[in-house]
Amino acid sequence: MRLILAMVLLAIRVMEVFYIASLLRKKGKPLSTERVSHGRQCEAFALGVYQKLGFKLLHQNLRLKIAECDLVFEKNNRLLMVEVRGKKNPKYRPSLMLSRVKLNRLKLSAEILSVKYRKSVAVELFEVVGEFPKIEYRRFPIFFPSSRSDSF
């Protein structure tokens, strides 16, 4: 009897999660071409910055089961996964708009890449604020493996 009750409660919770997820999808605004264009400009800018620093691009917009990695680089036999965030309005810092769920997904993605490539993986946030050509950018380390001997 307890087993049946537990299974019914679990089924109800799963249905609630799917219902909430469907509501969130309906409320989400479709991306405008302007927003997509700004995002692509930010990613292209970040790509150029990291390549000037000596990083070799391995993947761009790599889709994993749990998240999408904007940029994945290699340098000194180590990997760097970069999440690029951009805002046109300088009042809103993209670094402050990274949810705990997204952070956890980035960490799990780093672990997946670490197993796949058998290399240590670090995760950074690349923040772009402003409109091109007048922009500011910053790099924030999010996650570094504990076995790292030196930083990038």
Describe this structure in words.
The protein has 152 residues and is of the alpha+beta class. It has three helices and five strands; from the N terminus they run ααβββαββ. It has helices at 2-27, 33-52, 100-117; strands at 56-63, 68-75, 78-87, 121-131, 134-143. A five-stranded mixed β-sheet has the order 1-2-3-4-5, sandwiched between helices. The radius of gyration is 19 Å and the shape is globular.
Describe the main β-sheet briefly.
5 strands, mixed
Low-confidence stretches: none
Order of helices and strands: HHEEEHEE
Q: Would you count the extended β strands for me? A: 5
Record the strand order, biggest sheet. Answer: 1-2-3-4-5
> Beta fraction of the residues?
25-35%
Share of helical residues: 40-55%
Shape verdict: globular
Give the rounded overall mean pLDDT: 81
Distance between the termini: 57 Å
The total count of helices amounts to 3
Estimated radius of gyration: 19 Å
Q: Which class of secondary structure composition applies to the elements?
A: alpha+beta
Write the layout of secondary structure elements.
Elements: H1 2-27, H2 33-52, E1 56-63, E2 68-75, E3 78-87, H3 100-117, E4 121-131, E5 134-143
Parallel strand pairs: 3-4
Antiparallel strand pairs: 1-2, 2-3, 4-5
Features:
152 residues, alpha+beta, five-stranded mixed β-sheet, globular
